[in-house]
């Protein structure tokens, strides 16, 4: 009986220590992170429609011209028919170091990727970025 009691107390103390360590780690992990809308110096370059895809797919590069590492970045694509906005697509990408570029690909689920009429156009931009280590 004494062994069972000692085992139970040891297990409970162990679980409590693990939970405490996790809370401290998660708290410290978020200290150096900052979400920024339309981060300065972070742009989309060399973008185009990827041909022969079942969905409209935009490819290009995310260029981080800032002096800080991006842990995460969201890229938005707005699809227009003439002047009317018909769809908005987005995706997130991880780890774009300062002064580097990273390829991206965003698929728009409700727009066919082949035989697009000439009046279909898109605009692409970086919406938000998470700076951190």
List keywords for this structure.
133 residues, alpha+beta, Coagulation Factor XIII, Chain A, domain 1, 3-stranded antiparallel beta sheet, 1 helix, 7 strands
Quickly count the helices: 1
- Are there runs of 5+ residues with pLDDT below 50, and where? none
What is the helix/strand order?
Answer: HEEEEEEE
Shape: elongated
Distance between the termini: 50 Å
Number of domains: 2
Question: What is the typical, i.e. mean, pLDDT?
Answer: 84
* Major beta sheet, strand line-up: 1-7-4-5
Strand content: over 45%
CATH architecture term of the largest domain: Distorted Sandwich
CATH topology value of the largest domain = Coagulation Factor XIII, Chain A, domain 1
Which secondary-structure class do the elements indicate? alpha+beta
Tally the beta strands.
Answer: 7
Radius of gyration: 23 Å
Major β-sheet annotation: 4 strands, antiparallel
Q: CATH homologous superfamily of the largest domain, by name?
A: abc- transporter (atp binding component) like domain
Instruction: Report the top-level CATH class of the largest domain.
Output: Mainly Beta
């Amino acid at each position: 009986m004494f062994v069972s009691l000692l085992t139970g107390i040891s297990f409970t103390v162990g679980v409590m220590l693990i939970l405490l360590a996790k809370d401290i780690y998660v708290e410290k992990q978020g200290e150096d992170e900052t979400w920024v809308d339309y981060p300065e110096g972070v742009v989309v370059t060399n973008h185009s429609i990827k041909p022969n895809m079942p969905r409209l797919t935009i490819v290009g590069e995310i260029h981080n011209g800032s002096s800080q590492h991006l842990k995460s970045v969201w890229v938005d694509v707005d699809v227009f028919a003439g002047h009317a906005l018909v769809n908005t697509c987005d995706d997130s990408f991880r780890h774009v170091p300062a002064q580097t570029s990273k390829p991206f690909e965003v698929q728009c689920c409700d727009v066919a990727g082949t035989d697009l009429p000439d009046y279909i156009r898109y605009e692409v931009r970086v919406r938000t970025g998470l700076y951190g280590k």
